[in-house]
């Protein structure tokens, strides 16, 4: 979704420029990052208009993106870890973002997804949102299915009826085994 939006932004920019200044090649990293920031800004302005109602401390950074102040400040880490970007729950952008991370990380579970997402983003009610999205994943649902088990099969009639000694005999063979002397032997078990 971010790359598609980056292509749309490039098209819009190319429409405003002269023919000689068109960008025609692959997307640059800066264009992808810019499109991600703009999508986040659009999502936040549309779905998070009332910031004061939240219980946590928020602020707007230099890129006009709403961030959350975390309690972890004494650690040497990236600024996105200290102040993650705030995202709304149950919105299409958030769902697509979670699905892409889920696929990139080989259909990881809820706890791993939480730790991966919290490095950069703070999703409101993230565990509930993650559960609902991961429960909709067809591949994960396929691997969570328990195999069907049938009850024990009934014994054949010759195993249950009374009979004379050695009337019914079973033979099991095991081998080829080598003794310490180098001889070859087989084991025959009569039951």
Topology, please?
Elements: H1 2-16, H2 29-47, E1 58-60, E2 66-68, H3 79-82, E3 85-87, H4 92-104, H5 110-117, E4 121-123, H6 126-135, H7 138-144, H8 157-160, E5 171-178, E6 184-190
Parallel strand pairs: 3-4
Antiparallel strand pairs: 1-2, 5-6
Pfam families: Integrase_H2C2
InterPro entries: Integrase_H2C2
Protein name: Integrase catalytic domain-containing protein
Would you give an account of this structure?
This protein has 191 residues and is an alpha+beta fold. It has eight helices and six strands, in the order ααββαβααβαααββ. It has helices spanning 2-16, 29-47, 79-82, 92-104, 110-117, 126-135, 138-144, 157-160; strands spanning 58-60, 66-68, 85-87, 121-123, 171-178, 184-190. The strands form three sheets. It has a two-stranded antiparallel sheet with strand order 1-2. Strands 3-4 form a two-stranded parallel ribbon. Helix 4 (92-104) packs across helix 6. It starts with a helix and ends with a strand. The mean pLDDT is 86.
